[in-house]
Amino acid sequence: MENPTTESSSELARFNMIQQQVRPWGVLDDRALDVMAEIQRESFVPDAYRALAYADIDIPIGEDSCMLHPKLVGHLLQALQVHPGDKALEIGTGTGYVSTCLSRLGARVTSIEIDPTLASAARERLAALKVKNVDIREADGLAMPMPGAPYDAIAVTGSMPTEAALPMLQAQLAIGGRLFCVLGEAPVMTCLRIRRMSKDDFRREALFETFVPPLKNVAEPAGFEF
To answer: Quick one: which of 193, 165, 197, 170 has its CA closest to 75?
Structure first.
């Protein structure tokens, strides 16, 4: 059983995360905020970083990988507008925190992780936490369309330097489906929401500028030729 003092400290940390980081950065969706306020983020970070689970910093989770900042997760959830019964595809499982948030919002989540170590650890973590409706698969989510399409929501948790994978991702959206991704190169990248209005009509909305490490095996920009 968790120590009451520890539990109270965790609740306060989540409250402060919402009120001092996520809400002031423009995340006002009550359902997204409620989910983030309920889920114990410290359960998803490496042991060495548990004390920093709610800090506004990059938390390393593996080779060249890190958890998204809480405020970025909030924007992701707000942009995707997930409702109970929606089918969601996540590219980049990481520790399973975003997968769990999507599941708590009512989605049936297919989460793709290219790193076998992260994928295995996330499966064990979500099983221990009794998280339902999340299917974690080991694969390169940008190499080919994933089974189960069309999806109502697609979350890409690492950045993509080019638009090479966008047509494939967009093609997996249901009509009315939403895609959240980060496009561009350091130091400035653009966070996008893309909505599929019809078979061939995709509406793109630039949300804000940010920085997120790129996905593994993602297409790199063409180099200069002399």
So the answer is: 193
